[in-house]
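R.M. (postdoc): so does anyone remember the format we settled on? I'll just put the structure tokens first.
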């Protein structure tokens, strides 16, 4: 690829003008290759939509929970909702400019190069780099956007492509969530630039999000600063000491220690064990049923609650959520329909929301039992007996 023969088109992903701009540029310049900001998964999905192939849109929430990818799924769902909602507002389907680029390239018989990193890799790297506080702020800001909190001022989509506005937006994003900025913006700038440099043909048009264009150009002008691309595809395990997990793990361990100390001190703990089991099961059941679960899910959540309190790597919400998922089949339409939600009633009938709510509600009920009810009703009285209080 010759730098002087490269044209980079920065688009807004939900802009009608961007669609026309991309198609006009391809027809006018007729490059040797059209590079687009898609990975193979998203490209295949768009192509199937273009030719009318109906995919099996069932989402295995069971697999998501089993593989402990609830956080990744939840984040992806919120981001998908956010982009779809903007697209609904401006009556442009997200990814339309990529469809326009594909259509124009195929019409002229021009090869297409996919230059983006796998979306799952990108989001997982972002989540792994985020600390607890940053992750909480990021998720809260997404949820706030979903429910319309914050600035109600309408955004001009075309103004988002203005370089001055992009700089301000990126700086704000960097300040609010530096780890997310590092992975979603800076890393992808490098990845996209590196993939463009790998294209063997000389004359290239690259279609990318406007926010990436300045970073890509900077790397292309200084290719020696590019990191090896394979390093950007590795999903690193999060480093550092997980203090929050350690503290949460210590609570059930403390409960077990108190039971054993009481037993070895000759204290009859039979009634205390009954109380522990009963309170745990009741709160697991209540948390699940109040969150709108099926009775079967609430029963499962309640039954496993005592075990999950003692075992720090298990959560009652996983089990009630898995049970709920068997009764509520989640489809891609549930994600796309999030953009059409205008009332709590609409949200209540969305299967994604309902399953996530059951997971959260069950865990919340068990957490109240663990942190409030059990210490005051069971463990503090036992502790006082052990030490003669």
């Amino acid at each position: 690829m010759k730098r002087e023969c490269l044209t980079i088109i920065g688009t807004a992903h939900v802009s009608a003008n961007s669609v026309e701009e991309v198609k006009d540029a391809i027809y006018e310049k007729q490059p040797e290759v059209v590079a687009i900001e898609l990975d193979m998964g998203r490209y295949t999905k768009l192509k199937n939509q273009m030719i009318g192939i109906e995919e099996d849109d069932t989402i295995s929430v069971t697999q998501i929970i089993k593989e402990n990818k609830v956080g990744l799924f939840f984040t992806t769902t919120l981001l998908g909702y956010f982009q779809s909602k903007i697209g609904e507002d401006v009556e442009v389907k997200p990814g339309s400019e990529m469809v326009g680029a594909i259509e124009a390239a195929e019409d002229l018989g021009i090869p297409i190069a996919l230059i983006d990193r796998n979306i799952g890799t990108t989001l997982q790297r972002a989540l792994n780099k985020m600390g607890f506080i940053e992750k909480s702020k990021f998720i809260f800001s997404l949820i706030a956007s979903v429910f319309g909190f914050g600035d109600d001022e309408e955004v001009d989509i075309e103004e988002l492509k203005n370089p001055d506005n992009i700089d301000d937006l990126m700086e704000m994003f960097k300040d609010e969530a530096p780890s997310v900025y590092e992975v979603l913006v800076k890393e992808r700038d490098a990845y996209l630039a590196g993939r463009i440099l790998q294209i063997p043909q000389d004359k290239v048009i690259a279609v990318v999000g406007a926010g990436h264009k300045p970073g890509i150009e900077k790397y292309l002008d200084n290719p020696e600063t590019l990191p090896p691309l394979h390093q950007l595809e590795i999903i690193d395990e999060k480093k550092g000491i997980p203090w929050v997990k350690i503290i949460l793990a210590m609570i059930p361990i403390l409960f077990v220690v108190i039971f054993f100390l009481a037993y070895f001190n000759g204290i009859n703990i039979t009634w205390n064990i009954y109380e522990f089991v009963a309170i745990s099961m009741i709160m697991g059941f209540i948390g699940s049923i109040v969150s709108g679960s099926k009775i079967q899910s609430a029963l499962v959540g309640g039954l496993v609650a005592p075990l999950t309190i003692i075992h720090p790597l298990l959560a009652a919400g996983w089990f009630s959520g898995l049970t709920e998922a068997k009764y509520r089949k989640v489809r891609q339409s549930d994600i796309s329909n999030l953009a059409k939600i205008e009332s709590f009633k609409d949200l209540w009938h969305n299967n994604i929301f309902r399953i996530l709510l059951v997971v959260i509600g069950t865990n919340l009920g068990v957490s109240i039992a663990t942190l409030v009810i059990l210490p005051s009703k069971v463990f503090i009285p036992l502790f006082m007996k052990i030490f003669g209080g």
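R.M.: ...and that's the designed sequence above, right after the tokens. Also worth knowing: The radius of gyration is 26 Å. The CA atoms of residues 271 and 378 lie 9 Å apart.
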